[in-house]
Amino acid sequence: MQTRLKKTTLAILPLTGLLWTAPFVFAHDDSFLRGDEHQAMHNELNAEHQAGHEALNAEHQAEHQNLEAAHQQAHEYPMTRRQHRRLHRQLRKAHRAEHRGLEAEHQSQHEELNAEHQNFHDFDR
Fold it and tell me: Which pTM does this prediction carry?
């Protein structure tokens, strides 16, 4: 689990860096907007970005709690070794599926924010 979390984090860091540095890299022509309006737009995008991460982290934590509760509940009943292994395989499969879903949702949020950011600068030209 720790390895997957590390891999996910390492895969996400470049995208996060892009969103944090993009405002400075793409801010090339502010002739149509005053600097404070431009900065306000970037602040808004950064706030949306942060809120998206917080929501995904909360969803991730809730899913871990749900899986742990299911795990504990299943252990309240007697089971054979085979049934026990099967239970853990099913829980691992559900865990991986949830991570894939969260990763896809995270990627989608980054793409939407990047598109909104690019549209802002395209309109600004």
Answer: 0.58
